[in-house]
Amino acid sequence: MLKNVNTIGIIALSGNCDREKVLNSKLFFENLGYKVKLSKNIFDSNNYLAGHDKDKLEELHAFFKDPEIDLIIASRGGYGAIRLINNIDYNLIKNNPKPICGFSDFTAILAMIYKKTGMITYHAPMACTDFLTQTDNNLTDTQTNFFKTLNEEINSYNADKVYNNRMAEGVLFGGNLSTIVSLCGLDFIPDENFIFFTEDINEPVYKIDKMFQQLFNIEKFRANCKGIVLGEFSGVNNKKWLEDYFEDLANKLNMPIIEILKITHSEDKITLPIGAKSCIKNSILTFSLK
Asked: Angle 205-216/239-253 helices, nearest 10 degrees?
């Protein structure tokens, strides 16, 4: 189903994992014909973390070095990925490139790997949240979208809402807003022009405002960001305030800002390649890995 993928590695770099969900996810992929390797720490628990940082790093490096693993998928999000990023061997990853996928807290890993290596990473469904069951022996829309995106069979999305209809080009970059903001102070901003996509969950409007303000207070972020794709901000405390804020942001920045609601924590989500060449034109986001 996935080109050039025989073995999938499921890794735990954030919150501790539910054993049943891990095993169900493993069975899900095995039923599709893939071999599955689990990280050695996947059932470890260190309070709210999936084991100790040292063990997580060893497994991340081992997964990239393992010639049998063709694709790495995060088990879940939560918290913990940002604790690792200063000690990752990015040269090892650059010399052993392979797709790595996740969202939410895992955004920190995806963004930093792209920044440090130039390797495409995927803001994508995770094992213990999105690959547990099939619907009537068929793949869900989220699962189908994941496989098609990695196979480069999907390359565009129409906006659900438009705040500013200008045009922009740049690499696709972003992910969970609060996680991206947690990288401030590090060298995480792309050196080239980029289109920033983002989403979040259970954040009040004033914090969303504050996080965007923090990013655009950074001169390099402000200079290189050429457009914004807003995902779903689920659980927000006041939807009208949020819409008013995005209207104000569009007027203030005078750059294309569109909304694609399936960039989300919700069940029905799309996969996006971080680092892909992208464009916003006529209210459509397009991207290409070529």
From this structure: 20
pLDDT in tens, 110-163: 999 999 999 999 999 999 999 998 766 789 999 999 999 999 999 999 999 999
Whether 42 and 75 have beta carbons less than 8 Å apart is answered as yes
Domain span at residue 224? 156-288
Residue 128: what residue type?
Answer: C
CATH number at residue 141: 3.40.50.10740
Torsion-angle region of 247 (φ positive above 0: left; ψ -120 to 50: alpha; else: beta): alpha
Specify whether the CB–CB gap between 102 and 109 falls below 8 A: yes
In the beta sheet, which residues pair with residue 230? 198, 259
Q: What is the pLDDT of residues 229-254, one digit of tens each?
A: 999 999 999 999 999 999 999 999 99
Please answer whether residues 133 and 24 qualify as being in contact, where contact means their C-beta atoms are separated by less than 8 angstroms: yes
